[in-house]
Task: structure prediction
Amino acid sequence: MRIGIIGAGQLGQMLGLAARELGLEVCYLDPSPAPPAAGCGPVVQRPFDDPDALADMAALCDVITYEFENVPVAALQQIEGRVSVHPPVAALRHAQDRLYEKQLFEELGVPLAGYRTVDTRADLVAAATELGLPLVVKTRRLGYDGKGQYVVRTGDDVDAAWRALRGQALIAEQWIPFDFEVSSIGVRDARGNVRIYPLTRNVHRNGILHTSRSPIDAPGLAELAAAATRKLLEHLDYVGVLALELFALGNKLLANEFAPRVHNSGHWTIEGAATSQFENHLRAVAGLPLGPTENRGHAGMLNLIGEIPAAARELQEGTLHDYGKQPRPGRKLGHITVTAKHAEQRDALLDVIEETVTQSAPVSGKGP
Ligand SMILES: Nc1ncnc2c1ncn2[C@@H]1O[C@H](COP(=O)(O)OP(=O)(O)O)[C@@H](O)[C@H]1O
Ligand SMILES: [Mg+2]
Result:
């Protein structure tokens, strides 16, 4: 069986490596030269919405999936009738626009932060009055890693936020003073079987995922997150892996956003779960039985952003994943996963690795 994957970045690469283990073939569509997944299968180097390339993919593959959520919906609609596309295009449409995403949470009764749509400066002023400050203004489309966002802390920030983001469809949402952030990763197959991974606790820095840990000791929250994830999967008649990001506040969870794909906060599942999110995504889209999602011990993941320091290659503990990408500030280049018997051991290991990796980072500038 051949799986066509739209996008050949690091997520495509990790899908490709899992496919090899399952004996599945993969091929990719990606316009960039030498993308990370190129070693896993042939890459059609064309734009994501190239009709001929999409037609070729539809003809050559048994199923089409995607590794990032900004694939043009119209591109997938072109081939939907000719080949199975998983996850469903409806999931992509909701995930691409923060307004549709929030409306879906509301429809499903999943709690979320108060929000308003913002198309004019007056809308923004009204949102600040009605929702209160601080609030965060976000572009409805194409935001990632905290990009396309502006935090309005005082009335004086309104103009700066408007100047920074005007001209794009926006939403304003209440700033949530969360205790911590979590993500819930679930998978559903075409027969309707659902499996949910143990809850993951995430720390972001500058809007970019920094560390993930799973499981967490919060059974009440895990249950809430699993129920919300299941609702999304079932409502969308979803096939594949989905990741739901939420804010934990006391004994409540507020949904932030979801990704209709494998997710950075689930990378720990490669070493830390009975079946990785990549394998389970492929199993779902290829019509194979899903694998168990239980943890194998306590897992932690540290993202390597901007560079992979030399010390990251010499660690005694932990598994380094190097995506083979050119270093660039703010770019996700790799990650390190640790697993341990106990949460305290996992946390201690992650702390040591973080310190080692940070200390070995080359010092920029001339120094004191
Ligand atoms: N309403 C909010 N309240 C508090 N923190 C927020 C809020 N919205 C976003 N953030 C912070 O910014 C990060 C990135 O925002 P998110 O909405 O997830 O966008 P992205 O698509 O860039 O991941 C979140 O993980 C969280 O740390
Ligand atoms: Mg996010």
